[in-house]
Write a structure and sequence with these properties.
Organism: Rossellomorea pakistanensis
CATH superfamily: Aldolase class I
Strand content: 15-25%
EC number: 5.1.3.9
Family: Belongs to the NanE family.
Keywords: Carbohydrate metabolism, Isomerase
Function: Converts N-acetylmannosamine-6-phosphate (ManNAc-6-P) to N-acetylglucosamine-6-phosphate (GlcNAc-6-P).
Number of domains: 1
Order of helices and strands: HEHEHEHEHEHEHEHEHH
Number of strands: 8
Bound molecules: N-acetylmannosamine-6-phosphate
Number of helices: 10
Structural class: alpha/beta
Amino acid sequence: MSKHDFIERIHHHLIVSCQALENEPLHGSETMAKMALAAKEGGAVAIRSNSPEDILAIKQKTQLPVIGLLKRVYPENEVYITPTKKEVDELLVVQPEVIALDATIRERPNQESLQDIVHYIHDNSNTLVMGDISDVRDAEYATEYGVDMLSTTLSGYTSYSPKQDDPDFELVKTLSQQATIPVIAEGRIQTPDQAKKMFELGAWSIVVGGAITRPQLITKSFSDKIK
Ligand SMILES: CC(=O)N[C@H](C=O)[C@@H](O)[C@H](O)[C@H](O)COP(=O)(O)O
């Protein structure tokens, strides 16, 4: 799929993140593929997925384009979403349409640079790069170093971005006015109304995860409310 085709496909449409880590009840590629199929039936036009195994299973089951990432924790480093070229190599084997990676200003493991990793992906594949950022400075940095689109994934999850229960509407609004590449709203979108608001603020597309695909969190929102 060409860059133009992918960017147009997601425009004003819903991307669903189907992720269950090892410590989560729904962990497993077969389950994630079923979750992705359900998301497709509900109108998702692309899936965000963690690990080569899950990406492969989701692609086979849904035929939807996939934004792939590989979460890996390196000791003494905060960057965990596709941190190094090693994770990129593992992802490229299963040919996701897009690779999502941490594109914050933070140091990466092994002194690798964002610029090198983005060039590495572009030089070795047709894969696009989604830069996961947490604030405006990250977004400028990521854009300068060549990512194809921005996602607000990490707002609230770096030491220098605001902690809040709501999605970061302000960041989406600011970036949508300033950015020269598509801005995807991601992180803590809990309701259809919040999703709609993101588009009103100028988001190119949105990613919804836990509110659709993490039933333990959905259940908790009910049980907390009725306590
Ligand atoms: C911060 C971080 O590691 N976010 C991860 C990124 O891939 C996922 O765990 C989230 O589920 C995803 O960003 C979607 O967000 P939400 O599940 O809030 O709709």
